[in-house]
């Protein structure tokens, strides 16, 4: 059965092994079956993961699990898996990278990079399977949402996207001697994805966004930006001017609510409580307004 | 008065404006001192009522010379009055924006002295932001009915979105409740804005002036079938008419403080666009006796004839006691507002027309079923549809399939035939859709077709709770006496309130269940 695009239509192509052929020619190698008791260890970097893909492709095997940890990092615990440590090699990583771009597409690589920054469970193994399928079926794999690996990977993509969306709005800067600083606590590693937005919007400012959960910080000053590891950060003192605007904002936040329409569920749906620690209007108490008045 | 006090009063007075969107315009920050705009809009916080806070929504002043019955700022209402100076407002916006509290400014105002005087003050605030501070963030400005066209034009060149509130869904109600406003005073600036926007579009870009084919058709359809606005009177203000009236009404523009040359220049080099994020409007629901059908027809007319980006509905919240209004104890008709927004989405994204959704025999939206489900139940002849063959438009009309999942189905079925599991992963709400779909020629296996099950599947958990609550009340009146909820259409004082229990009976009895397979 063929449709007008010439692609063979199949029934639940997801997890099944079948000879994928077009006019009698086999297009790609069959995806090897997953070996559930095989574990890959790698160093947790993006290049390291690309090497996992390369090694798995060369060895024609798919590991059941990929762990971001190496023996040098620390003790790899004894387990029931047959383990294999993947050494990160720049040349292999580049080869895989080029292969993905050439054979599947640049946007496919971009999706992988995004998902790599997300926090879905078992993302490395899911992404590996996803990449194998990508090599086999091409870019169309993205529309095959009924496939478990595709579904999981796209879920990671969506999770990250949603959180990035939220942080665009929920980052709260404080002015510390002319420098804008903000602390966030993200589930996914969102900094690389919120950076372009903030660097564009505040291109004349000097600012920093510190991610408390990932211990990373985005630093920017006109013409220069960097994402660097940072252990700890806290705003030491709040100037009078800063306190003034915080109070004003809190005042505005309280005034804008229409009391007869109060809807706590709706608020928490859109602004889950885990964000509240980082929001000026939720952390500042009512006292800040009265304190502000006394100040005057 | 201190800025804090002013902010409290003026934000409080502005909060009944429903719109707080910052979408519809993508603009890079380079070229401005600070600020950019994203086309999807960004919500910066959510107030206790669950509404998004995207813009700094304030009035310039709440000193008002008008006496609109429904409004807190009416002349005859005893309230503390104050006004921002343009400088204060610009500074506040700038500092809030710098801390990423807001996406921009939503400036509205009560009518201070005269519409023109107020608009000039608003204009000054925008000029400080755009010319002096080089602010690139989003600005939404509200036009006061009766403002001279010249000022509207100036406001439009500085703002990103511009809106004129239509206030009430019929001119009769407008006359009754807002005696200082009139249909003409509202529609004229609307038409002017629309003309300016399309003029501007024509002057820009290679394909700027060409409407996409689909849009043209839609517009043509809109004008002959729905050329009715405001109680069936045809409103066709032509461009020539607005232009000539503009000339007549033009008042000399008096703004001495700002540099005249700067005013003539666009606020950014190479950019002279007029309200690039389009225009929107808002009306109050539940303060006047119009039916949902009238409201939807008006909405459709506004989308087609005035090319609105959005029409907002705001459930009437009684703030003042007046014999012309529902009593002060009335709860805001939130469910009705919700239903109207659902219908609004069907008009804009699903290819429905107002007459399809509601007709003379059916003038109100159903309280327990969403408009799409209700439509599908009244049109069993169109169902079931085969997932693997149905066109995109057919899929869109199936309850439980939205625009995104319809698109995904169309993409996914190029690769392989879809089955029920696949549909689930695609994001189709199978609970509803399974009654209207066939997959590979077969209906959903083991589908319960009892009336109750079917009806429950059509309702969301919230609607179900409401329905059951009513059911309990129906059977045990003594237990629930004095039990008030914000049930749909329970607002008093409106003329055509459908009797709830009849509706409920109808929902149970008259619903036809699609049987096939």
Give a structural overview:
The complex is a heterodimer of chains A (296) and B (517). Helix content of chain A is 42%, strand content 18%. By secondary structure, chain A is α/β, with parallel strands linked by helices. Chain A has a five-stranded mixed β-sheet with strand order 7-8-9-10-11, covered by helices on one side. In chain A, helix 6 (191-201) links the parallel strand 8 and strand 9. With 517 residues, chain B is of the alpha/beta class. Chain B folds into two domains: 3-332, TIM Barrel, CATH 3.20.20; 355-509, no CATH class. Helix content of chain B is 41%, strand content 9%. Chain B has 20 helices and 13 strands. Chain B has helices at 3-14, 86-98, 115-132, 149-158, 171-177, 183-202, 213-225, 239-249, 260-264, 292-305, 334-349, 354-357, 371-378, 392-396, 403-412, 420-426, 430-433, 451-458, 461-475, 500-509; strands at residues 45-46, 52-53, 56-59, 104-108, 138-143, 161-164, 228-229, 233-234, 279-285, 310-315, 385-386, 416-417, 437-438. Classes of the chains: A alpha/beta (296), B alpha/beta (517). At the A-B interface, strand 1, helix 5, helix 6, helix 7 and helix 8 of A face helix 1, strand 1, strand 2, helix 2 and helix 15 of B. Strand 1 (10-11) of chain A pairs parallel with strand 12 of chain B, so a sheet runs across the interface.
């Amino acid at each position: 059965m063929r449709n007008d695009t010439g692609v063979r239509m199949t029934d639940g192509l997801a997890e099944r092994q079948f000879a994928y052929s077009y006019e009698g020619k086999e297009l790609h190698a069959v995806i090897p079956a997953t070996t559930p008791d095989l574990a890959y260890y790698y160093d947790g970097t993006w290049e390291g993961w690309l090497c996992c893909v390369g090694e798995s492709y060369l060895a024609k095997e798919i590991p059941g699990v990929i762990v971001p940890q190496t023996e040098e990092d620390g003790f790899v615990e004894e387990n029931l898996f047959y383990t294999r440590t993947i050494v990160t090699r720049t040349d292999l990583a580049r080869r895989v990278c080029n292969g993905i771009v050439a054979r599947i597409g640049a946007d496919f690589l971009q999706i992988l990079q995004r998902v790599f920054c997300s926090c879905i469970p078992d993302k490395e193994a899911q992404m590996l399977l996803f990449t194998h399928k990508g090599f086999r079926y091409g870019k169309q794999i993205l529309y095959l949402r009924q496939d478990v690996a595709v579904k999981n990977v796209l879920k990671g993509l969506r999770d990250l996207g949603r959180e990035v969306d939220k942080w665009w709005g929920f980052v709260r800067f404080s002015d510390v001697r002319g420098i804008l600083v903000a602390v966030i606590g993200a589930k996914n590693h969102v900094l690389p994805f919120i950076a372009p937005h903030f660097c564009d919007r505040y291109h004349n400012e000097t600012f920093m966004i510190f991610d408390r959960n990932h211990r990373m910080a985005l630093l920017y000053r006109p013409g220069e930006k960097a994402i660097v590891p940072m252990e700890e950060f806290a705003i030491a003192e709040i100037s009078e001017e800063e306190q003034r605007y915080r109070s004003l904002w809190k005042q505005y936040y309280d005034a804008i609510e229409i009391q007869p329409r109060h809807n706590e569920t709706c608020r928490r749906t859109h602004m889950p409580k885990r964000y509240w620690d980082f929001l000026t209007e939720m952390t500042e108490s009512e006292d800040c307004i009265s304190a502000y008045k006394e100040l005057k | 008065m201190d800025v804090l006090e002013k902010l409290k009063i003026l934000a409080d007075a502005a909060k009944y404006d429903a719109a707080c969107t910052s979408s519809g315009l993508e603009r890079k920050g380079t070229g401005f001192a600070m600020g950019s705009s994203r086309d999807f809009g960004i919500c910066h916080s959510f107030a206790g009522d669950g509404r998004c806070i995207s813009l700094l929504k304030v009035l310039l002043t709440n000193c008002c010379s008008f006496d609109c019955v429904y409004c807190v700022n009416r002349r005859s209402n005893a309230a503390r009055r104050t006004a921002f100076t343009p400088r204060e407002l610009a500074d506040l916006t700038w500092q809030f924006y710098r801390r990423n509290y807001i996406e921009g400014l939503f400036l509205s105002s009560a009518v201070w002295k005269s519409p023109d005087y107020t608009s000039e003050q608003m204009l000054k605030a925008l000029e400080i932001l755009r010319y002096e501070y080089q602010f690139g963030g989003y600005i939404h400005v509200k036009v006061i009915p009766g403002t001279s066209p010249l000022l509207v034009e100036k406001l439009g060149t500085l703002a990103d979105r511009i809106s004129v509130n239509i206030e009430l869904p019929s001119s009769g109600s407008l006359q009754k409740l807002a005696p200082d406003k009139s249909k003409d005073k509202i529609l004229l600036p609307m038409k002017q804005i629309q003309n300016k926007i399309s003029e501007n579009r024509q002057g820009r870009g290679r394909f700027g002036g060409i409407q996409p084919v689909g849009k043209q058709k839609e517009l043509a359809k809109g004008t002959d079938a729905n050329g009715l606005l405001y109680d069936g009177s045809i409103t066709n203000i032509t461009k020539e008419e607005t232009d000539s009236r503009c000339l007549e009404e033009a008042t000399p523009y008096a703004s001495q403080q700002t540099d005249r040359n700067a005013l003539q220049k666009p606020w950014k080099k190479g950019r002279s666009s007029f309200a690039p994020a389009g225009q929107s409007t808002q009306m109050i629901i539940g303060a006047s006796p119009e039916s949902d059908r009238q409201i939807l027809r008006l909405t459709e007319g506004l989308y087609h004839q005035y090319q609105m980006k959005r029409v907002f509905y705001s459930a009437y919240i009684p703030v003042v006691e007046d014999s012309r209004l529902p009593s002060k104890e009335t709860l805001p008709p939130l469910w009705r507002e919700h239903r109207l927004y659902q219908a609004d989405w069907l008009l804009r994204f699903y290819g429905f027309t107002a007459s399809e959704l509601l007709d003379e025999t059916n003038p109100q939206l159903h309280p327990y079923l969403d408009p799409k489900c209700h439509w599908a139940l009244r049109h069993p002849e169109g169902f079931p549809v085969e997932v693997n063959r149905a066109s995109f438009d057919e899929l869109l009309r199936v309850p439980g399939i939205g625009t995104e999942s319809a698109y995904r189905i169309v993409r996914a079925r190029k690769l392989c035939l879809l089955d029920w599991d696949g549909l689930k992963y695609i994001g189709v709400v199978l609970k509803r859709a399974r009654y209207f779909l066939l997959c590979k020629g077969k209906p959903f296996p083991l589908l319960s077709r009892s009336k109750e099950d079917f009806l429950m599947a059509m309702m969301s958990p919230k609607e179900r709770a409401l329905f059951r609550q009513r059911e309990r009340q129906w059977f045990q009146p003594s237990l629930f006496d004095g039990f008030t909820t914000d049930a749909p259409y329970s607002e008093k004082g409106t003329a055509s309130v459908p009797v709830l229990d009849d509706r409920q009976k109808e929902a149970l009895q008259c619903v036809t269940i699609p049987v096939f397979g």
